[in-house]
Amino acid sequence: xxxxxxxxxxxxxxxxxxxxxxxxxxxxxxxxxxxxxxxxxxxxxxxxxxxxxxxxxxxxxxxxxxxxxxxxxxxxxxxxxxxxxxxxxxxxxxxxxxxxxxxxxxxxxxxxxxxxxxxxxxxxxxxxxxxxxxxxxxxxxxxxxxxxxxxxxxxxxxxxxxxxxxxxxxxxxxxxxxxxxxxxxxxxxxxxxx
Amino acid sequence: xxxxxxxxxxxxxxxxxxxxxxxxxxxxxxxxxxxxxxxxxxxxxxxxxxxxxxxxxxxxxxxxxxxxxxxxxxxxxxxxxxxxxxxxxxxxxxxxxxxxxxxxxxxxxxxxxxxxxxxxxxxxxxxxxxxxxxxxxxxxxxxxxxxxxxxxxxxxxxxxxxxxxxxxxxxxxxxxxxxxxxxxxxxxxxxxxxxxxxxxxxxxxxxxxxxxxxxxxxxxxxxxxxxxxxxxxxxxxxxxxxxxxxxxxxxxxxxxxxxxxxxxxxxxxxxxxxxxxxxxxxxxxxxxxxxxxxxxxxxxxxxxxxxxxxxxxxxxxxxxxxxxxxxxxxxxxxxxxxxxxxxxxxxxxxxxxxxxxxxxxxxxxxxxxxxxxxxxxxxxxxxxxxxxxxxxxxxxxxxxxxxxxxxxxxxxxxxxxxxxxxxxxxxxxxxxxxxxxxxxxxxxxxxxxxxxxxxxxxxxxxxxxxxxxxxxxxxxxxxxxxxxxxxxxxxxxxxxxxxxxxxxxxxxxxxxxxxxxxxxxxxxxxxxxxxxxxxxxxxxxxxxxx
Lengths: 194, 546
Known about the structure:
- The structure holds two protein chains of two kinds.
- Chain A has one domain.
- Helices cover 58% and strands 0% of the residues of chain A.
- Chain A contains nine helices and no strands.
- Chain A has helices at residues 4-16, 45-58, 72-82, 85-106, 115-127, 132-149, 152-158, 176-179, 184-193.
- In chain A, α4 (85-106) packs across α6 (132-149).
- Chain A is globular and about 60 Å long.
- The N and C termini of chain A lie far apart (60 Å).
- Mean pLDDT of chain A is 82; it is low at 1-30 and 187-194.
- Chain B is of the alpha/beta class.
- Chain B contains 14 helices and 17 strands.
- In chain B, strands 1, 2, 5, 6, 7, 8 and 17 form a seven-stranded mixed sheet that branches. In chain B, strands 9, 10, 12, 13 and 16 form a five-stranded antiparallel sheet that branches.
- In chain B, α1 packs parallel to α14 (523-542), α6 (129-143) packs across α14 and α7 (169-180) packs across α13.
- The longest helix of chain B has 20 residues, at 438-457.
- At the A-B interface, α3, α5, α6, α7 and α8 of A face α2, α7, α11 and α12 of B.
- Chain A: Pfam families: Gluconate_2-dh3 (PF13618).
- Chain A: This is Gluconate 2-dehydrogenase subunit 3 family protein.
């Protein structure tokens, strides 16, 4: 099927990404471009650190990677860079407000707080009745979700995703508990009938 | 500027309708010139097997997948009233929207063709299921459609279905729940090859059809029709030809097509004995409305004043839920076809007490097909370790229902052209004025109720919905009605063979010809209608009637 050169390229790509199902070898993957170390394009360095800390509170490292491990801050920077101007502005305003809010409240930056303090602060924020706090939290949570659950760590290590591959047959459901499942009312009818 | 050669047939558009017309006509020995608003998409660069994080990295590096979707704003804007938003989704390029279509392949039935007789709304279709059935058979055999052996008054069966893939766990549970409510559930009919067919490999169940298929295992006009038409030697394709008008001779009959080169902007004309219009509903209508002349002051073939009117499609919404039976279940690769493996055909006509006309069917994509986990996480409250655990627990349990309800054709829902607002070629822009009516809103209420009824029966946890919400018009990409077929020339633009009542050498073969939208996805019917119309066209040519 493949020329030798193509095969080498394919296997090379697979070796670089060992988490992929071997079935994916049916589809030559173009190499993801690699180059210099990551540099933010939208956020500044302090903002990146704040974003990474908030994201890590939202999806922390457990026995699987957390948001920081998964590079969620890189995703947030990427998504904002490509977002519409109104979305960018909303985020920047929210982050500025958040930074000032934390400074007023704790006289330190969010990153300098202990994790339990960070969590308490975010809980208050998400539950507050002010307009700005919850709005910023929701935007940050959504970006974190997108960044984490679309990441290599999120999909493969956390969720054990093994799809988007080549199957020669589709198996479908073969679980007795699903195939024989009946709604509650149908069950009670059946019992009455018997 | 005018080229001297006259083409037997000029086909405008290369998607399902234009592609099928060109395929059939060239097989029948007719010389065809196809005008395509774009070029061939680079199929060596599909991102079908590029995972989200890989895609991000590529985008950051400045790479891009094939640019299927037209940037309407910059290329061909359309106008809408401020309070009537419309979402027009276009693909300009070889194969049109079939490159990325949803592949749901449903036959319309006499409940659809006879709807005006049954409930008194609108005009009757000039054809019946029996007229189209032989063509549905041919289309199923040609393009390859998988599906079950079901056959009903709503959804006529086919002897030519390939075996459907079995349902996923979540689909098994929802099917049982719906059937306990006397709501039949069938295998989804999809134009995916589940067996090798005409030299094409079968589907490999990667679940990413929407990004284009590298093995051409679902039907596209660009891979499954046009190469076969080219093989006959009877097809010439002119790319990047953005058609503006159909021109007429001294008797009001079509004799040429005017277009502009998409990149150079230069005006060109080609002479034609017959013109087949298949530029998709909205653009076909725009072209015809702009084709004004002494003979056709309101647009080509518009003596009825029906051209541009009677826009119809479907009202659509979405309900999401979690099935507790699947909480904590280990991941298994349930990608399958992109989309559901089951379908809930219309059933409301069997139930009493409806306060609205017509009906709806329910699709179920994103049901039991865990992918990124984003959809799961976005529907859950909180954050932190418990949140992460809960997302993981529910990862395989997400289900979604997507009812499609027929929108009635109404005269005031219409497309016009605005002589004061022109595109970069100086051609008037189209104005779309469409909104749903009370009938659709009543149906929407029942659509929500039905989804909730099925989901409650399945013991699902339903994500709270805003029951007033629905997709804005155009989003389903099922536009119809603006150049409708009918027996009465005073009330319709086309006859029973998609031929203009007023101009017998113009045929319109896309969704705009539909007299009603029905609740069904239209592409299979477009293919069948275009095949039937082009059979008639070829025969008329042979007899010297055109």
